[in-house]
Write a structure and sequence with these properties.
The complex is a heterodimer of chains A (406) and B (295).
Chain A lengths: L1 H24 L8 E7 L10 H14 L3 E2 L2 E9 L4 H15 L3 E4 L3 H13 L3 E4 L16 E3 L4 H14 L4 E7 L2 H16 L3 E8 L7 H9 L4 E5 L2 H13 L2 H4 L1 E4 L4 H7 L1 H4 L3 E4 L7 H14 L5 H20 L4 H10 L11 E2 L5 E2 L2 E6 L12 E7 L1 H4 L14
Parallel strand pairs in A: 1-3, 1-4, 4-5, 5-6, 7-8, 7-9, 9-10
Antiparallel strand pairs in A: 2-3, 11-14, 12-13, 14-15
Chain B lengths: L2 E2 L2 E2 H32 L6 H19 L3 H22 L9 H23 L15 E3 L4 E3 H23 L1 H11 L1 H6 L4 H23 L9 H16 L4 H21 L7 H12 L10
Helix pairs in contact in B: 1-5, 1-8, 1-9, 1-10, 2-3, 2-4, 2-8, 2-9, 3-8, 5-6, 9-10, 9-11
Classes of the chains: A alpha/beta (406), B mainly alpha (295).
């Protein structure tokens, strides 16, 4: 009996060694190296939340692998997509066809992400999106090669919407950026508000990068809604909050920022943002791992990382782990491995990649600190609740992704 | 409550007033562009960047030298005006004999370089600039709550616009300027230093842009891209008013601000395009602009 077990174990170990060495020998890397592309906004309104910081985050992940995987070099390239879908799609095509890029990350801005996902899937490479918010990436426009890593409009709407309605903010008026992302965020949040027994009194749609928000805010004020939901991002959110303070809206009504980054809070200051609820996938001051990593990031950039930066680090780590384990950069095998295994790093623990491309991890509801509570620069959030991975994102049963067999 | 097309008249009054505030910025910026175009024949694409630099000059002097809002209102235009004169002496003066296009391309390039430089050092999220203490708070006008600062913006910009108009149309210096616009050679023959006047004019245009920048700093986030968001609208204002027309740019600036404000009430989605629709109509009906003269 004992002998049989020992024999079985020995042969198992032996077999594994053979398989492993076989893998190492046939390590199939296209171009004899792994090349990762960081496609982001380098110069426009989102370049502080992604931009150069994302390139640095990607490089940090590569450095943690010693710059090599399977004994071959890992290389980072980056480009500015200028928030233009056509520029991004062309760059992705050029990268894959000419430069042998295996995986593209960051890809913030939903319009850009949707266009890039199509090119990447057509060429059978991988896109790990850490910056775009539209849920279309894992629904109508899902592909077998898209990983939607960090957050989406559903998660943001549920985090902030539910919390605010529960605190008594049951009448809402939306200030919405007039494009796909804003509409989708407004719709998702409205659904949450209604489902929790709240009422939506109206919405005003403003053009992207509007020069002045005061007249939209006066309309929001006239609605007498308790909560003004800001379904916009970046500079638009910042200027909305600024004008709301100036016109005294914040004395009688509350603002709910639906996509707010720590960079926005930093630029506005706590006096203007205190008490606001924000939902984020990650914050630098969550635990020792995040603090340690953020300190490294801060030393290189003089800024604290956003959840997009942390997402880029995590996605590159995930990808390189997969390449290491499968011994190849073949997209199908890498994707299969990432779906099968759980992923843990400083971004999240036991993260699961679902078949529609959604990466499931915890989300966090924060409340912005009062100026007196903040002990150091970048000390901005109080953690109010942790939303478990299985509740944070749209359930698979509601998915409109054609890849899901129902 | 009385209503017009389903909008309470009080809300409408509020929006009109806000339109006037935005119109003041359009008026001041298009005034600077009009003066520069009138005398230098340069389509100054760097105007937005100069406006942004004005705001940054205020923010930098507050943050690093503790110089407050009121001194900045004078200092920033002086500094940026001097910077403008350097641009004129260093680059633009070589282009007057060439087609408009060269001036446009050069200033556009300068604008991109300036914006890029500021973006490199300050990022795009922007920096907050506080409202000066004397003007913080708001006044209840009955139909709306108007922040005192916005009222000050309208007053300050109207004063500057009227003063500029007065200098150009009613004083001897202005007469020289206007004459130099018509026929620089002849004016030079009378012993007037036209190149110096040209340099000073560009500097003044830049100073006006910087002044608007300082005025805007407490309202919107001080941000390297703040100029490029605005400059295209301001160009449309100049075209509607008539290239080079002083009064035209002031009147259309204010008028279009109000029209834009009303659009934000009735059909907010169109508020960024309404000015361009008007521009197309004006160009079809009066190609020289509302206040321009056909040449």
């Amino acid at each position: 009996m004992n002998r049989t077990i020992i024999a079985a174990l020995t042969s198992a170990v032996f077999l594994t060694t053979i398989v492993a060495s076989a893998q190492a020998q046939t390590a199939k890397l296209s171009g004899d190296m792994v090349r990762i592309g960081v496609l982001t906004d380098m110069s426009g309104l989102y370049s502080d939340v992604g931009g150069q910081g994302s390139v640095i985050a990607a490089q940090m992940a590569v450095d943690d692998f010693g710059g090599k995987v399977l004994g071959k070099k890992v290389d980072i390239v980056s480009a500015d997509h200028q928030n233009k879908a056509d520029v991004a799609a062309n760059k992705a095509r050029e990268w894959i066809d000419r430069d042998g890029v295996d995986m593209i990350t960051d890809v913030l801005n939903s319009a850009v992400a949707l266009a890039t996902a199509k090119v990447v899937a057509e060429k059978k490479r991988i896109m790990m999106d850490t910056g775009a918010a539209s849920t279309r990436l894992t629904n109508e426009d899902c592909t077998p090669y898209t990983v939607h890593h960090s957050y989406d409009t559903y998660a943001l709407a549920h985090g902030t919407g539910t919390a605010v309605v529960k605190q008594g903010g049951d009448t809402w008026f939306f200030l919405t950026a007039d494009y796909a992302f804003g509409h989708s965020l407004e719709k998702d949040t409205s659904d949450v508000v209604k489902a929790n027994g709240g009422k939506v009194l109206g919405a005003v749609r403003h053009p992207l990068s509007a020069s002045d928000f005061s007249s939209f805010l006066l309309q929001a004020q006239a609605s007498k809604a308790k909560i003004i939901g800001l379904a916009n991002a970046g500079g638009d959110t910042v200027n909305s909050i600024k004008a709301a303070n100036e016109f005294g809206l914040t004395k009688t009504q509350s603002l709910a920022g639906l996509l707010v980054f720590i960079a926005d809070i930093h630029s506005l200051g706590l006096a203007a943002t205190q008490g606001m609820y924000v939902t984020e996938a990650w914050y630098w001051d969550l635990n020792d791992d995040t603090r340690k990593w953020s300190k490294r990031f801060f030393e290189k950039t003089k800024k604290m990382p956003t959840m997009i930066h942390a997402g880029v680090y995590s996605s590159v780590t995930m990808y390189l782990n997969a390449v290491k384990a499968t011994g190849t950069d073949d997209a199908d095998q890498v994707m299969a491995w990432m779906r099968k295994n759980k992923h843990s790093d400083m971004f999240g623990k036991n993260m699961v990649l679902r078949e529609d491309g959604r990466l499931l991890h915890e989300m966090y509801l924060f409340q912005v600190k009062k100026p007196a509570e903040s002990k150091a620069p970048w000390d901005y959030y109080n953690l109010r609740s942790t939303i478990p991975a299985d509740q944070a994102f749209q359930p698979l049963s509601l998915s409109r992704c054609p890849l899901i067999k129902k | 409550m009385t209503e017009i097309l389903g909008i309470p008249i009080q809300a409408l009054l509020g929006q009109l007033l806000l339109g006037l505030v935005n119109g003041s910025f359009y008026a001041m910026l298009s005034l600077g562009l009009a003066i520069i175009f009138g005398l230098l024949n340069i389509i100054n694409f760097a105007h937005g960047a100069l406006y942004m630099m004005g705001a940054y000059a205020a923010w930098l002097s507050l943050t690093y030298f503790n110089v407050g809002y009121w001194p900045s209102l004078i200092l920033a235009p002086v500094v940026i005006g001097a910077f403008g004169m350097l641009i004129e002496r260093g680059f633009l003066q070589w282009l007057y004999k060439l087609d408009h296009l060269y001036g446009l391309l050069l200033t556009f390039g300068i604008a991109l370089m300036l914006e890029g430089t500021f973006r490199y050092f300050f990022g795009v999220s922007g920096q907050p600039y506080p409202v000066p203490e004397q003007l913080s708070g708001a006044t209840n006008l009955g139909f709306m709550i108007l922040p005192n600062y916005r009222a000050w913006v309208v007053a300050a910009s109207l004063t500057v616009c009227v003063a500029t108009w007065f200098v150009i149309e009613r004083t001897r210096l202005g007469a020289y300027l206007r004459a130099a616009t018509e026929n620089p050679k002849l004016v030079q023959a009378f012993g007037i230093n036209v190149p110096l006047m040209v340099t000073l004019t560009y500097g003044f245009g830049a100073a006006l842009a910087a002044f608007s920048g300082v005025l805007a700093a407490p309202i919107i986030q001080v941000n390297p891209l703040m100029g490029s968001n605005l400059i295209v609208i301001v160009f449309a204002v100049v075209v509607i008013g008539g290239m080079g027309s002083i009064l035209g740019s002031i009147a259309t600036g204010l008028g279009l601000g109000v029209i834009e404000g009303l659009t934000k009430v009735f059909y907010p989605e169109a508020s960024s395009t309404v000015i361009f629709v008007i521009m197309v109509i004006v160009l079809l009906v009066r190609p020289a602009g509302l206040f321009g003269r056909e040449k």
